[in-house]
Specification:
This protein is mostly helical. The protein is built from 14 helices and no strands. The longest helix is centred in the middle third of the chain and has 34 residues.
Length: 372
């Protein structure tokens, strides 16, 4: 089907070029009226939009109209995003229930929101944590290896950006909802900026360090490496390699955690299914939507806590992180699954245990993948 559309599009383009040559003297008004055939696929038009590809019959060539279109898309995104965020914070169960029941055009999809909020948390942690990869204490061989790894991360980020740009273009051509695709693309672009910034900081410290420089902490690292005996030679070697540059190891773990954050969903779903195993009206899809929205809120919460840690309100952060998550879980459980207070309470306690277990399993997965 796509080949046919491309062929039709090429034919239409050739015809338009010829008509522009023959009709060069036509008035501007005549050139801006809707056309009898679609400019994109060549199909005959019977209304304001093409029945074949969905493109508008009216083809504008006005900067003013272009500005109106940009403004419309921005306002449309803001309205949809703010509506979703408002319910996510105040009525998470209602948001989850509405999306499960099919009311989806007014809200950002749970997967897109999850990916965006996870990136936002990662970005905020990178800014507030002040973590950068230092190369001042590495020898030349380790410095070259660390830099090569950063370059590889940049290549992966660029490939991710290109993939999401293609997905956004496909969404626009198919007249699908482009908001989710735009969110994914923006997140990918921000990730690329973060990794490029890490490489710039790494190169700056490398330029200030003398050739062959060694860390003042090398005796401590050597002593720790000598005492590592897990019984697995491969694991021992992996740990010793990471001890040579703990900052690089931490960066790899953080980057791996961000890239594989979606693994929290399959880790959590079996536990949620067990909590509602006797409910025949609840599908595994419902649990997935619940997990995605819940994790999106937690990501926003921890990003906010990281920002608040820089303010005088930092003394209240421990109380916030202890009180807000269980209250949000209770509210979301009760309204999503139509639970009574007592049933929602014990499930909230169970969900807190599930969250802790899933987080530990996720950290083990990140350590295995990120430090291999």
């Amino acid at each position: 089907m796509s080949d046919e559309l491309e062929a039709a599009g090429a034919a239409v383009t050739a015809g338009l070029i010829a008509s522009q040559v023959d009709g060069a003297s036509a008035t501007p008004a005549a050139r801006t009226e809707p056309h009898a055939v679609c400019r994109n696929c060549g199909r005959s038009l019977s209304g304001a939009f093409c029945a074949g590809c969905g493109q508008s019959a009216h083809i504008h060539r006005s900067l003013l109209h272009f500005g109106e279109e940009v403004l419309h898309n921005i306002l449309h995104f803001d309205a949809k995003a703010w509506r979703t965020l408002l319910l996510l914070v105040t009525r998470p169960g209602l948001l989850t229930r509405r999306y499960i029941d099919g009311q989806r055009m007014r809200y950002v999809s749970p997967l897109a929101l999850f990916l965006f909020t996870m990136f936002l948390m990662y970005f905020v942690f990178s800014l507030t944590g002040g973590t950068s990869i230092s190369s001042a204490h590495l020898n030349d061989v380790d410095r070259a290896a660390a830099r090569a790894e950063l370059i590889g991360a940049i290549d992966e980020a660029r490939a991710d950006v290109a993939q999401h740009e293609a997905a956004l273009e496909r969404a626009r051509n198919q007249r699908a909802d482009v908001v989710d695709a735009e969110l994914d693309l923006n997140a990918a672009r921000k990730t690329l900026q973060v990794v490029e910034g890490a490489l710039a900081a790494f190169d700056k410290t490398a330029a200030d360090a003398p050739s062959g420089a060694a860390s003042a902490a090398e005796p401590v690292t050597a002593a720790l490496s000598a005492r590592i005996e897990t019984g697995n030679a491969a694991l021992d070697d992996a740990i010793k390699r990471q001890l040579k540059n703990p900052e690089l190891a931490f960066y790899r773990l953080k980057n791996t955690a961000y890239k594989f954050s979606f693994m929290l969903i399959p880790i959590s779903l079996p536990f949620l299914w067990l909590m509602f195993a006797l409910r025949r009206d609840v599908a595994i899809y419902d649990h997935a939507v619940f997990c995605l929205y819940s994790l999106s809120f937690m990501s926003l919460l921890f990003a906010s806590v990281a920002l608040l840690s820089l303010t005088p309100l930092s003394a209240w952060l421990a109380l916030i992180t202890m009180v807000v998550p269980p209250l949000h879980m209770f509210a979301q459980l009760r309204e999503t699954y139509g639970l009574r207070t007592r049933s929602a309470l014990w499930r909230t306690l169970a969900l807190l245990c599930i969250a802790g277990t899933a987080f530990v399993l996720f950290l083990l997965f990140v350590a295995v993948v990120g430090l291999r």
